[in-house]
Amino acid sequence: MPETIQSVFDNQKNVAGECRPQKPSYPFLAWENQEELGRLEDILNHLRQSKTGRSLIADAEKHQTVIRLESNMRAYGSYDEVTNNLKVNANSDLNRQIGTMAHELRHSQQFQKGILMDAYLDSPKCYIQNQSVIEADASATATAVCYELALAGNDKPLEALREKDAHIVNPFQNQAVKNGKIDESAYQAAFKGWFTDYSTRDCYDILYIKMVRQRFKNCTREEENKKFERDVPVNDVVQKVCSCNGKPYMSEQETQAFFSTQDACSVSFERFNNIYGNCCMKFNFDWNKPQEEVMKEKLGLYCRPHSGYMPAKIVPQPLPIPKTADRQASAAEKIAAVKKQKTTQIAKKTQLSAMLKYKAAREK
Predict the structure, then answer these.
(1) DSSP for 47-60?
(2) Is the per-residue pLDDT at 21 higher than 80?
(3) pTM of the full predicted structure?
(4) CATH class held by domain 1-112
């Protein structure tokens, strides 16, 4: 039975066997039973306590993104841009599911902006860097949602996220605390923190190799001739998806500086060899040159050791989140300072006006 039809039947059942149809708060939920529906509604209700969470849900609804729980998955969640289906691991606890759904909703939002990604058509460097962009940005956005919930009095989703991604959460939190608000610097700190976890980066490099092989099985002759040629500049993707308060949180110059470093252009040793093998015939690699030299010259890629030999994640100590009373006191001080400044300006204008009138009177 199709899932949409099954959902309608399940939605009209209760323990008493009566028909009491319920209308989900989000119209594109898919569920197997009332327990799943209740959990999905709990996650969404928590997200709606966050300004960023409400925006993510609104955009997903506009995009008609289907949201469901999935028991048989190893990851915390996933989003498929082809089917526009979002899945959250049903076996995770509620607090982790909140951060996961925020992450995956950001992916839904990202692909509404027209980004291009194809592991078989894109050059390896472009695809790997752009994949890292959307993952780092989704992690930064999930952190923003959980931090907003913590400011509202519920810090459990943030602590669940910190347990897994302290190298992302702590830099974000420190910038937000220092500046007294969630701004571009907080997003950028979390974004860059993502790249310090070489184990995660290696996982996505492995995924890239798998997707190339999968696409090869179903590619057309035309795609075969154009494989690994398409250039999708990382700056274009950053400017499209990496936004905070309606504007990019990394400038073109900052993006260029960050992604031109050797570290940002590197893949692990094993994946480096895989890419070399996939591209050697396509780009007529010179077999007499060292592999590292050819890859740098032809593909702009560098080799890094296995993640086990890379530096440990950079995890700064988090600054304490300001309490509600402290934030209110700080806001009151800022308001008082602004009022005082305006009063001073008015007094100066009044004094100047009086002097001008006095001068005019004397001249008469």
Answers:
(1) HTTSHHHHHHHHHH
(2) no
(3) 0.84
(4) alpha beta
